[in-house]
Design brief:
There is one protein chain. The chain has 288 residues and is an alpha/beta fold. The chain folds into two domains: 81 residues, lambda repressor-like DNA-binding domains (434 Repressor (Amino-terminal Domain), Orthogonal Bundle); 191 residues, Endonuclease, Chain A, CATH 3.30.870. The chain is built from twelve helices and six strands. It has a six-stranded mixed β-sheet, with helices on both faces. A hairpin with an 8-residue loop joins strand 4 and strand 5. The radius of gyration is 21 Å and the shape is elongated.
Length: 288
């Protein structure tokens, strides 16, 4: 497991240990939140490993939970120190909403990412020109400096495929995604050629659900499933909505989305046929 994956594993292990201590001490999330001058949502996110815990917060919680075993305290402090190391996007943290920072962490540490998109090409597969067209097409126009920053971050995210332990990435898109002319024919042709090229690598698998397929009803909208090899890391589903993202890690919910993804996979063209469809549509764009 890579360094960043170990970091998140340890942060989640810390959160799980703190939850166990809190419940054993019969302390409510409201009482715990008051001890660190936060709210119950913060405690929940810390216990799920999605929010860093400062040394002062950790000490306050351990005191509240009456955790007096010195070796246990030292171990939890070590977990906290490792879990709080900075991510590659730390320098841009003030420009990113919390939900997106959470997605970056999940994405960076995942061993497998399974994405279903019914609107646009997934960010990890976008070309710079396509990404620029998508981000600049927001109903709330961005100043050029911020637009350039967000495009740069999107391109930097794709570095996960270049590292020594890249995640396995499976993307399923509807045919409408590759026919929607975002940025115009030239941008789309380049984007589709890029998809074909990515699909030839061992890490990326791309499938298209064609217009002719009328039986795919396994999902109501786009979602991403992040999977981890370590049993201490919970698999997580990310579902985007208008003003943010919903993250779910309950076993039953994750299992339903995993089943939905397999149903979508069965409805989609095989990877080779998908590549042929993508290439044919790219040719259409190039003739325009």
């Amino acid at each position: 497991m890579g360094h960043s994956a170990r970091r998140t594993t340890r942060r989640r292990r810390l959160g799980a240990e703190l939850r166990t201590l809190r419940e054993a001490a019969d302390v409510s999330t409201e009482e715990a939140a008051k001890a660190i001058h936060g709210d119950r949502t913060k405690i929940s996110r810390q216990e799920n490993g999605r929010h860093r815990i400062t040394r002062l917060e950790l000490e306050a919680l351990l005191t509240l939970y009456k955790a007096e075993d010195e070796s246990l305290r030292q171990w939890l402090v070590a977990l906290s120190d490792e879990g709080n190391k900075r991510s590659w996007w730390h320098q841009h943290r003030d420009s990113l909403r919390d939900g997106f920072k959470e997605a970056l962490t999940l994405e960076t540490d995942a061993a497998r990412i399974s994405a279903f998109q019914s609107r646009i090409v997934p960010g990890l597969l976008q070309t710079q020109a396509y990404a620029t067209a998508v981000i600049s097409g927001s109903s709330d126009p961005l100043p050029k400096e911020k637009l350039d920053l967000f495009v740069d971050i999107r391109m930097s995210r794709q570095g996960i495929f270049l590292r020594g332990n890249p995640p396995q990435y499976a993307a399923i898109m509807t045919e409408g995604v590759i026919r929607q002319q975002i940025g115009g024919p030239q941008v789309m042709a380049e984007q589709l050629r890029h998809l074909v090229s990515l699909g030839e690598t061992s890490e990326v698998e791309i499938q298209i659900i064609p217009y002719s397929q009328s039986t795919f009803t396994d999902a109501d909208g786009s979602f991403i499933l992040y999977s981890y090899p370590n049993p201490l890391d919970f698999d997580v589903v990310q579902v985007p909505y208008l003003v943010g993202d919903l993250y779910m890690e309950e076993d039953e919910t994750v299992a339903k989305y995993r089943k939905a993804f397999e149903g979508l996979r069965a409805s989609a063209l095989p990877t080779l046929q998908s590549a042929e469809l993508i290439s044919s549509i790219a040719c259409e764009y190039e003739r325009e």
